[in-house]
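Quick start: load a record and inspect it. Here is 4Fe-4S dicluster domain-containing protein:
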Amino acid sequence: MNRRDFFRKSLSKAFAVMEESADEIAETWKQVSGEKKPDPIDTPEESTPATRKKKSETNRKEDPSLSQTNSPKPKKFKAFRNLQFPPGADANGKRFLSKCTGCGDCIYACPYSVLFPVPNDELGKHIPHMDVNLNACMLCKDFPCITACPEGAILPYKKNEIPKFGKAKGWFQHCINSRTEEKTCEACATACPVPGALKFKGNKPTFTASCIGCGQCVSSCPTFPKAIVVK
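Running the structure step on this input writes:
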């Protein structure tokens, strides 16, 4: 056998094997693809807007979950909770809200960045508030926030007058002392600036009527979640 016949015979065998493999692959593909049905194609009449609307209404009637009555209602905006007015504001906030222009001077004057603006849609302005559970009022002697107010919305305290922002409440289950079962931590008592506002009953801190709700005990509490909250 010469070289030409040798190559010709070898190639013919190779092509025969390839052709046989291709036939097997094609047959397998037919079996797999034969199980899938083609998606229905909308006719021009079925694809018109009127027809699609009719189909949508029919589906909505058949499936109650698609009806508008069962659709989730939009969530209403929840107002901020547990916020306090700045020092020097009246207790109910009537005078403060009527005179405050939302200028923000008291916010900028606070050396501890305790105050922040809160939008008031009814008044159409941003009213300064504070949340002593996040950032305590440090009860500055000169109250620069009050001094900075040009409208008299927040007024200086009278002699011997003490500000009142709320009252602290203990969550003893989060307190370190409840875990150690002894008086291990006294951080809240050390931080409290008002004499007699915080007392210990055994290893449990309690708050008296003298508490003004400044939040300094909350800031000093080392636990998470905090074992104290001002309300």
